[in-house]
Design a protein that fits this description.
- By secondary structure, the chain is mainly alpha-helical.
- Helices cover about 70% and strands about 5% of the residues.
- The chain is built from seven helices and two strands; from the N terminus they run H-E-E-H-H-H-H-H-H.
- The protein has a two-stranded antiparallel ribbon with strand order 1-2.
- Strand 1 and strand 2 (about 35) form a beta hairpin.
């Protein structure tokens, strides 16, 4: 009961945090729902750019690769290496999922990932993925991990699965938001040209956060399939 009440309180806390905003945002009212238009638009722009560029590059692969083809081949090899290292020999089917997470965070525009709802959604997708991986590999025997190495640890093991998406979402949200706030403060205090180096630093930050998120997602999936902690 204590674990259940703690989980309910955690979900209530997430709901309250989802209303936190920094800066001005605009919304669409669709039926009885309020949609965060800014995040929705920028997310779809990122998706469109990724799909469009990937389609243009891979629809006619060259024997001597173009710059674009070289870039996507490098990214694919990089994601494969990360997935294989964290998941193991059965990594192949998870490369598209890990790669999508990595590229979406890396190529953010106007930072859809600085909204807590977006980062929570990405983290929950990761949670669904590692539950699916564990259940697919082990069936209902997957839930046996909650009483390992002793049934006394059952509440802690259950709580661990709630803290994984929380840690993923808050880590990504906090780091990306901090970068955005630094740029906003500098723009308001100094001439526009001064914050440009910080904006380039933000691109580097996006790469680091994308790598961390993708690596942890792959590690959680590998852990659910192997059953180790």
């Amino acid at each position: 009961m204590n674990v259940l009440s703690c989980s309910i309180n955690t979900l209530k806390g997430l709901y309250d945090i989802s209303g936190v905003e920094v800066g001005q945002h605009f919304y669409w009212q669709i039926g009885g729902f309020q949609v965060h238009a800014q995040v929705l638009i920028t997310s779809w722009v990122v998706i469109a750019i990724l799909l469009g560029s990937a389609t243009l590059v891979v629809r006619n692969p060259q024997t001597i690769p173009t710059d674009g083809q070289n870039f996507f081949e490098y990214v694919l090899e990089f994601i494969r290496d990360v997935s294989k290292t964290q998941i193991g020999e059965e990594y192949g089917s998870w490369v598209p999922f890990i790669g999508t997470m990595f590229l979406f965070i890396l190529f953010r525009i106007a930072a859809p990932t600085n909204d807590i709802n977006t980062t929570v959604a990405l983290a929950l997708l990761t949670s669904v993925a590692y539950f699916y991986a564990g259940l697919t590999k082990k069936g209902l025997g997957y839930f046996g991990k909650y009483i390992q190495p002793t049934p006394i640890l059952l509440p802690i093991n259950i709580l661990e699965d709630f803290t994984k998406p929380l840690s993923l979402s808050f880590r990504l949200f906090g780091n990306i938001l901090a970068d955005e706030l630094v740029v906003v403060v500098l723009v308001s205090l100094v001439p526009s040209i001064v914050p440009i180096p910080v904006m380039f630093l933000g691109l580097f930050t996006s790469g680091i956060q994308a790598l961390i998120f993708a690596t942890l997602a792959a590690a959680y999936i590998g852990e659910s399939m192997e059953g180790h902690h």
